[in-house]
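Record type: monomer structure entry
Structure origin: computed from sequence
Chain ID: A
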Amino acid sequence: MESTAGVQEQVKAKYGSAARAVAESGNVQACCDPGLRCCDPITTDLYSADQTGTIPEKAVRASLGCGNPTALIDLRPGETVLDLGSGGGIDVLLSARRVGPAGKAYGLDMTDDMLALARENQKQAGVTNGEFLKGEIENIPLPDNSVDVVISNCVINLSADKDRVLREAFRVLKPGGRFAVSDVVVRGTVPEDVRRSILLWVGCIAGALEENEYIAKLTGAGFDAVSIEPTRVYNVEDARRFLTEAGVDVDAIAPQVNDKFFSAFVRANKSKFACCQPGCCAPTPAGAKE
């Protein structure tokens, strides 16, 4: 298995390339960049015209997600939102508008080029209640019990240490806080070689969790009321060109692939009674801010 550091470097390189492509050209959909090798059925038509009309075009073009987490949850005025792996900033900017001037939207990303693009998009959008932080989703630089909602858009599947990501999300959420992310999920058993080929297409880096494993990890991190709702099911035909170019016999694997890979809304809650006494939360990981 590849190391966490190795996976992080691959993610940085790929998403840094996407950010530069959008920043420099302004007219090329980042997910179509040959270096990323992602495909349109995953990343297109995720946001309504009402949403995309309120933010800079480059924020839309830099979106490499698999869903629309801002549609997942009823954000309330005055709430604090954290977007894990915020990319070009689309979900942070949309969330900031929904929570209003009394609220706050943080974006967390480890890629300098994406952070620069997101901050420029924020400036153009005139959003003053947003803030983009540099850091890793495995080590969130925010205090315990500091945010109301954690969102993310097709980023958790890219982490090599998903248990740590989920524990960190639980840590920074306030009691009663909500976890509401879009992610790629696998349903059932798929041969490992087939799984790798499909997930390289769907998520650029293989790493999506099986549905029941995702639920178990969220529960293990302390969450309750966990649910996974498929939003876009992937068919092998969606990936035929990519897989053929990769030397995969598409017709042979079709029966093992169809309806098993999907984008999903993943929801969970942190109990209102969680961490009700000082010191009951897990210790803050090294490097995270107190």
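Annotation 1: The longest helix spans residues 4-25.
Annotation 2: The beta strands are 80-84, 104-109, 130-134, 147-153, 173-186, 209-210, 224-234, 261-269.
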